[in-house]
Each structure stands twice: as C-alpha cells, then as structure tokens.
Design brief:
The complex is a heterodimer of chains A (252) and B (345).
Chain A lengths: L1 H16 L5 H18 L15 H14 L3 H12 L1 H6 L5 H29 L7 H30 L2 H7 L3 H6 L12 H9 L1 H14 L4 H27 L5
Chain B lengths: L2 H8 L2 H7 L2 E12 L3 E12 L3 E5 L6 H8 L7 E6 L2 E2 L4 H7 E4 L11 H11 L4 H14 L15 H11 L7 E5 L7 H16 L3 E6 L2 H7 L2 E6 L2 E6 L1 H7 L3 E6 L5 H8 L5 E7 L2 E6 L2 H14 L7 E4 L3 H9 L14 E3 L2
Parallel strand pairs in B: 3-8, 3-9, 6-7, 7-8
Antiparallel strand pairs in B: 1-2, 1-4, 4-5, 9-10, 11-13, 11-14, 12-13, 14-15
The complex binds adenosine-5'-triphosphate and magnesium ion.
Chain lengths: 252, 345
Amino acid sequence: MTEVLLLGRRATREIVRYPEATIPTLFIPLFFLVVNIGQVSKTFPSSTPFLKGQGYVAFQLPVSLMFAVATATSGLALVTEIDLGYFDKLLVAPIRRSSLIFGRLTADLVRGIAASGLVLLVGIALGARVQSGVAGAVLIVLLSALFGVAYAGFGILVALRTRNVQATQSSFLLFFPLLFLTPNFVPFDRLSPLMEALARINPISYVIVGLRSLVIDGWDLGKIGVCLLVTIALGAVLITASLRVIATYDRN
Amino acid sequence: MTMTFDTHRVEQPSALASGSESAIVARKLRRTFKGGIEAVRDIDLAVSTGEVFGFLGPNGAGKTTTVRMLCTLLPPTAGTAMVAGLDVVREAAQVRRRIGVALQEIGLDPVQTGRELLELQCGLYGITGRLATTRADELLELVGLTDAAERRTKTYSGGMKRRLDLASALVHAPDVLFLDEPTTGLDPASRLTIWDEVRRINAGGATVFLTTQYMEEADKLCDRVAIIDNGQIVADGTPEQLKAEMGRDVVSVSLDGADPAATEAALGGLPGLERVAAEPGALALYVEDGASSIPEIVRRLDRDRILVGAISVARPSLDDVFLKATGRRLEGQQRSSQELEEVSR
Ligand SMILES: Nc1ncnc2c1ncn2[C@@H]1O[C@H](COP(=O)(O)OP(=O)(O)OP(=O)(O)O)[C@@H](O)[C@H]1O
Ligand SMILES: [Mg+2]
C-alpha cells in the first residue's frame, strides 16, 4: 500500500510538473462547452422537452467531462518510462508489480478530480445548473474521475503491450468513435434507429446518461447505479488485463 | 543478512553449499532470444562474497543479458543462477531485496529531483520518513551531488546521472551490487570517481559484479575477471593470473616495411621465447624476460641485415589475454603508454 502511495505521489508530481501533457487534453472539452454549444443552442432552446428548462450546455456537460478525464496520459508516461529505462529500475525493486499500475491510476484519480472539477465549474459558469445539488456535483466529479481511472487502464494496457509511444498516443483515438456512438447530442429516442441501436450497446452511453441525470433530472438512483457499474466493469476489465501483462512483462 | 535467514538456508542443502561462500553462482546459464539469437551460451560463474568481479567483453558479447538474468529482470532460457544464495527465478522477490542494480541504460526519471528520486527509491525498499531523508543525504554526499540535489535530473550531465543512478542502487545497502558498464561514456576524471566509489562500496562489504569494455578498468578495479565473447566465457581468473598465463613480457617489434617472415625466422630460436604473434605491421614476441632479450634480438636482426622500426617491451595486458583467448583485439584498446618502455635501436 505504501508503495502505491509513493508511486502515486510521484506520478501526480509528474502531471503537475509536466502540464504540457495535460493542458491539451482540457482543450477539447472546454472548446466543446464554449463553441459547440454556442451554435447548437439555437437548434435546441431551453424549451426543448429533454432539456427540462435548462440550456443545452447542461445537456452537453457530461460529454465534456468525459473528454476531460479520458486520456492516454498515464499510458504515455508509462511508455516513456519504459523507453528511458526507469521502468527497469522499478521492476528490479522489491515491490509488487501491480503497484506500478495502481500508482499510475492514483495519479489518474487526482487528475480526474481536478480536470472534471474545472470543467464542471466552467459549465456552471456558462449557465448549467446541477439539479442534484452540491452533493450531486461532488458525485459528478467523482464518477467522472473514476471513469478517467478506468479509461486510463486502456492506455496503460497499450503501453505495456506495444512499448511504443506512437501506438500509445493513438490509442486515445479509439475513444472518439465510442463517445460519438452515444446519446451525446440528443437522447436515445431522437437518434436514428441504427445510431440508437449502436448507442444502446455502447457502455459509454450509460456513463453519459448517468452523469447527465445528475445535472438535469436530480437523483435518479437507477441511472447513477448503472453509470457506476459500467465504469467499474470497464475499469476491472482493462486494469485486470494490464495487471496480467505486467506480471509476465519480461518473458520476451 | 540476519541469523534467521542463514539458519533457514541450512534446510536447503544446495543453497548452503554455494550460498555461504559465493555471492553469485551460475550454472550452464543460457539465454536465447526470439529469432534464435544465442546471447548467452551455457556460462558458469562463481563470484565470492566480498569480491569486485569484472565481466569483460566487447559489444554484443552478452554482458547485459547476463546481468539482466542475474538481476531477475530476464528469465534464463536454461540453466540456474543463485544470487546471495537465492535462486533468481524461484526466489526472485527475495533476490530483489538483496541486490542493487545500475543498468547500462541509466534509469532516471527526468521530472524528479535527485533527492526525490533517492527518497522514492528508499521508500520502495521500505525506508520512509526521516530515515529516507537521512539516507538520501548520505548518498548524495557519497556521490558528490549534494549541491545538485534539488535540481531535476534532466538537467544533470552524463556523469552526474551515472552517479545518481549508482546512488539509487545503494539505498538499501545491498549485499550484491550489479553495475552494467558504469563508466562507459565518462571522461577519465569521472571514471576515476566511479572507481573510488566502487572501491568504497566494496570496502563496506558489498560484492560488486561489474561489466566493462575497458581492460584497464578490469585490471585496476577488479579482484577477478571473466572474459566473455560471443556469449561464452573464454578466460577467467585474477588479472595477475591471466596475465601470468600469458608468459612474462611482450616485446613488440615494429616492422617498418621489413619482411615479417624473414624477421620471424631470424628471431625463431631466441632464448626464452614462448611464441610469436603477428600483428598488423608488427610482431609480438612473448618472452620470459623482455628487457634482457633486447640485445639478443638486436644482434640477430643485425646479423640477418633486417632493418626494423621501434622495439618496445610491455608487460602482457588483459588485452593480450583477450587476443589469445579470442584471436582478436578488443576494439579501440591500446596498450596504455605507461606500460610501454620504449627501447630505441
Ligand atoms: N531483447 C533482445 N532481443 C533480441 N536480441 C537481443 C536482445 N537483447 C540482446 N540481444 C542480442 O544478444 C546479444 C548480446 O547482447 P548484450 O546486450 O547482452 O551484449 P553486451 O555485451 O551487453 O553488449 P554492449 O557492450 O554493447 O552493451 C547481442 O547480439 C544482442 O543483439
Ligand atoms: Mg550491454
């Protein structure tokens, strides 16, 4: 446990000292909030039924939150560390190998909280109202950060498997289609039949729906529960796979 | 090393047999990489506790591969290895607690400061809080980086990085220290600093296993040396033994255009001559006593009217050992100038 905290502190320090890696990941979500919404809100005025009296920014906020937390930063940091040889130094230390992954994920949690907190505040500044109140806002930040942790497992998995910077970098691109095959612009029932079918089998949809319910509906425990379960399941799959790769890392 | 640990080992006869005297034992250690590259071919090694052991070989000889196997980073394809009396495969976790490692590729984290890196390293070995701070201070002092302690390691020079990497291998006072080419790429002054540090660490009780491409390093720093070439150990012993096996002295006759065959023929019956080796533009005569054979060499060459260049005498170096064992010289190696006593004609 101590080693996870130590490695987590180090990874967090790396994020703070290397803002060049984090700032670009915040650019897209903030751009979405400010620019995209400014245009779309003419199409969907607050009288639109699914907005429940709020501006479109409230509807779109969860998508921005997810963009803010879903990054390949940890994977990139890991692959760089492998390249530099520091990873070998850590592997030869008497620690559990899983700590190397959990240390990174600790930093992802910290960054996720900071990034989603920031995006949420910008959303509120642009007029979104969190119907579930302060506790709901805190939950939104935590759920977003948790999703960021789960998603980081993907970058870490790619980093460990490929040990290649470019491959790890482009792993982030996988997230784009997944995020668009969701009710991200309109609810499920306003999507075309094909899109709706795809969106309904895409687990990411339910994360968005859960976060959105906290903003627009208030406390819908069913949606929140599904959101949490999907996030945990996604994280469990990706992180378990990463743990398996790191356990047999040197058998090349 | 605790008493309980030692008594525990009594129950493992094989570990005891080698464990009490030997810091490192390898038996028929082999590593084959994908594509059939045989990097290390069935090597046997025995390094006694308290030794500085030099593993000497040219590029691609298999030094790093051997070190990585001994450090638990790479599983052997075949054979066994024990470090500090523990099997590197079956008891890898315990081995890691007992060893310190500075790999050939310096493993530093560029965004941490030197102090942070050492304190983290302490933490990974269970040294935390004030103890970690004190230990980091000691080590920074030891490697002369106290002034640079608060700087991020990416601002360090190559020599500073090497020294910090060395310090980070020492946080837990390891029983066995592995250094893979600790001085490659360093200027002569930094090289001497590292040598001093290695001697001090060794004097503190650690067994040191170091790889090098430098004859001089093996010669000056190491109690015992093994020469590895092409994945196999071709010679081993103390530097003195190895050199003594070569015969006493090497007289080098620079041909300067003289006919090699005629020169060799003229010197054929020289008293005390063990063998003659042809080198580009020179003949190397391995003789019992170099200095006193010079007059006879000159007399014989005069007699046959053979005109040669300089004649020089040197004690055999490890380079000669390498030449004898492999039939090649280590690239970039020269007999160092102090070893040459120029004898003018
Ligand atoms: N991961 C690997 N996959 C395939 N071949 C490898 C691998 N690592 C090393 N080799 C090969 O094994 C041989 C020995 O390499 P090794 O790195 O052990 O040599 P070395 O003595 O350390 O050389 P150097 O002085 O250049 O560091 C070389 O032919 C090398 O190409
Ligand atoms: Mg090497």
